[in-house]
Write a structure and sequence with these properties.
With about 240 residues, this protein is of the alpha/beta class. Helix 7 (about 185-195) links the parallel strand 7 (about 180) and strand 8. Helices cover about 35% and strands about 15% of the residues. It is globular and about 45 Å long. The chain has a single domain, classed as 3-Layer(aba) Sandwich (Rossmann fold), CATH 3.40.50.1820. Helix 1 packs across helix 9 (about 225-239) and helix 2 packs across helix 3. It holds the Pfam family Abhydrolase_6. One of its GO terms (molecular function) is hydrolase activity.
Length: about 240
Amino acid sequence: MADTAVHVVLVPGFWLGGWAWDDVVGPLRDAGLVPHPVTLPGMTDDAPDRATVTREDQVEAVRALAAGLDGPVVLVGHSGGGALVGEVVDRDPGRYARVVYLDSGPLVDGAALNPPLPPGVTDIPLPAWEELEAQGSSLAGLDDGALTRFRERAVPQPGLVATGVARMADPGRFAVPVTAVCTSISAEQLMALASHDAPFHTELLDYPDLTFVDLPTGHWAMFSRPAELAAALVQACRD
C-alpha cells in the first residue's frame, strides 16, 4: 500500500465526534494518507433524534462512507467505535484493506457493549472521571486542558447504540488483516483476557492475520499521545 493513497476512516468511541481525531489527521495527511474523521449519527450537540438512533444507523453511516471512497480503505475504531467497525467489515469484507482496533475489538455475534438501560432512559451522558476510571477506562496521559475539552465537547451516547447487539455473519471478515493498538492494557494482557466470554465478548483473537502494537497510555490515545498514535496508524496502513 506504500505507493497508493489510502483512505483512513476514523471512528470514535462513546461521547465523541470526528473532532476527537483533530490532532491525528494532520500527521496522517503528512504521511500521504487520506483521513476521514467520522461524526456518527446522533453525535452532535444539536442532534434532534439521539433517542431513536440505532446501531444499524451508525453502522450504515460508516459503511456508506467507505463504499463511496475510491481506493483502499483502512478502518480505525476506538473503544465502542471498534465494535461498530467490526460490524461494518462484516457487511462487505472485501472492501477493506485493514482494520485497526484502538483499545477495542470486534464483538461476537449477539453481544452488546452495555446492558439495557432503565425504563425512560434513552442515552448515556459522559460519566464523572472517577466513574470512568472505576469502569476501567484509564485517563492516563490526559492533562487538565484535555479533560476540559473532552467534557465540553462530549455528547450523550445514544442508548440504542450502546445496548444494541452486534450482528456478525460473514466469515469473510476473518480474511481482513487486523491491527490491535493496545493503550490502557498491554498486548500481553489483552491476549490473556480476550475471549468470547465476559468481560470483552470479543472475537479479536479469531483473526489469523493479527498484529499487536503497544502504545502505553490511557484509553484516549488520540488525546494523550496523538503523534505516536498517528505513527502507529501510518505503519498499519503500510503493513
